[in-house]
Amino acid sequence: MLDGPLLAEWLPVSAAALAFLIAAAGVAGWVDAVVGGGGLIQLPALVVGVPKDVATPFILGTNKLSSFFGTLSASWVYLRRVRVHLTLLIPLVLGACSGSAIGAALSRYVPRDVLTPVVLVAVVAVAVYTLLRPQMGLRHEPRHTERRAIVWRSALIGAGVGFYDGILGPGTGSFFVILLVGVLGFGFLQASVNAKIANLTTNLAALAVYGVHGEILLVLGVAMAAANMAGGFVGARMATRGGSRFVRIVFLVVLSLLIVKLAWDTVVSFLPA
Q: Are 220 and 163 in contact, with CB atoms under 8 Å apart?
């Protein structure tokens, strides 16, 4: 049995905080499975629930552990129920991995308070564009049939969103979805499936980095991962049953949350220290 100090090292949260974090992970897994953006719920919950003396990389590593297994659970459900095309998926994943690596490498040189207002404008534009086109993404009607056109477009989408994920991050899944819908003509459901698998690979790459450095609160991460997997499983099943219309509604809700978060971050960045 673990004694007090050792238990505190492996699980540095109270029972109430643990219950709160597990619940947040479950909700985040559900949101992430449907349309992406679960990090908008889970990461702030970790910041609030974990003691302030825990270093930031441990919070990020624990978040990635939970998110990876939730995404894995959702991807498994999607792959059993929705057909994916490797012609699109492979360049999307490869582009996402390379873009994420470049973005992560450059992130230390680009101040986030410069990027956040730019991303905020982009997210507001996406939300308005989606609202003004109520039929967009409700049917799966791919615009391109030529292999070369699909490959280079999906590779560019992967690289662009992967770069954003590496350099900033919030709402990565939502950007994958809207670009697959808007550029390639995918339905929201089909876009969400491919976005989920692409996001799985970027999560794995980040998780490997945190794992190598031992920057994961393992016991807490495993507990949250179990909840995230359950939420992801339920969310993916609901998405495949509800179809693109259901995914579109959740997408707009997540975009609204992302706008509020980015707007708050922008305001805070201009306040005097």
A: no
Q: What does DSSP assign to residue 135?
A: T
Q: Which residue has the tokens 């994943």?
A: 93
Contacts of 117 (CB under 8 A, 6+ apart): 262, 266
Residue appearing with tokens 């449907």? 34
Q: H or E segment at 189?
A: helix 188-212
DSSP 109: G
Instruction: Note the pLDDT of residue 228.
Output: 96
Q: What's the confidence (pLDDT) of residue 6?
A: 42
pTM listed for this prediction: 0.82
What one-character DSSP code corresponds to residue 36?
S
pLDDT at 9: 54
In this predicted structure, what is the pLDDT of residue 114? 74
Nearest to 251 by CA among 188, 170, 163, 183: 188
What is the Cα Rg of the chain in Å? Answer: 18
Q: Which two tokens stand for residue 170?
A: 């919030």
Cβ 32 vs Cβ 70: under 8 Å: yes
Under-50 pLDDT residues of the chain: 1-7
Query: CA 227, CA 127: separation in Å to the nearest integer?
Result: 29
Q: For the purposes of burial, counting CB atoms within 10 Å of the CB of 203, is it exposed (0-12), middle (13-18) or buried (19 or more)? A: buried
Tell which residue, 252, 219, 269, 263, has the closest CA to residue 138: 252
Element (DSSP H or E) covering residue 159: helix 147-167
Q: What is the pLDDT of residue 74?
A: 92
